[in-house]
């Protein structure tokens, strides 16, 4: 894979901290923690499934991810800590006896859609553009 050699363009900040507005909601470190959290395969899959399913219970996540309960909750807590998912607790159990649900936050949806998913979609473009079997 080739490399892209560019310099910082005029008007772009030389310090990455300056990419954020002065009154930023989150710090650069917090954004990087989000990126690091979604960089784990299991956590990526959790955010992906929550983003595309609206909300799921831990039981539903466990059945599609096939991981043990303690591992699932470790990853759910990590994603909650960095703000990529949120937990909703019902005051009463539903018909299946479940009352805890998780869903992706707006930040989780955006990081997924404009980060990892975008890179994966571009992979299709790259392979089509450089496919020599079509000539």
UniProtKB/TrEMBL annotation:
Residues 1-20 are annotated as: Disordered. The keyword Calcium does not apply. Keywords: DNA-binding, Transcription, Transcription regulation. Gene3D superfamilies: Winged helix-like DNA-binding domain superfamily/Winged helix DNA-binding domain. Signal peptide: none annotated. SMART domains: HTH_ARSR. The keyword Transcription regulation applies. InterPro entries: ArsR-like_HTH, HTH_ArsR_DNA-bd_dom, HTH_MetalResp_TranReg, WH-like_DNA-bd_sf, WH_DNA-bd_sf. Residues 23-118 form the HTH arsR-type domain. Coiled coil: none annotated. It comes from Natrinema zhouii. GO terms for molecular function: DNA binding; DNA-binding transcription factor activity. This is Helix-turn-helix transcriptional regulator. It comes from the Archaea.
């Amino acid at each position: 894979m080739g490399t892209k050699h560019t310099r910082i363009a005029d008007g772009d900040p030389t310090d990455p901290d300056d990419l954020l507005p002065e009154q930023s909601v989150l710090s650069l470190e917090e954004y990087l923690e989000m990126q690091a959290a979604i960089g784990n395969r299991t956590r990526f899959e959790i955010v992906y499934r929550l983003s595309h399913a609206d909300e799921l219970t831990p039981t539903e996540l466990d059945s599609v991810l096939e991981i043990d309960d303690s591992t699932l909750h470790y990853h759910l807590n990590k994603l909650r800590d960095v703000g990529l998912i949120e937990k909703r607790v019902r005051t009463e159990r539903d018909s299946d006896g479940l009352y805890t649900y998780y869903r992706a936050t707006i930040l989780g949806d955006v990081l997924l859609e404009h980060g990892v998913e975008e890179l994966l979609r571009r992979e299709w473009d790259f392979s089509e553009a450089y496919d020599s079997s079509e000539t």
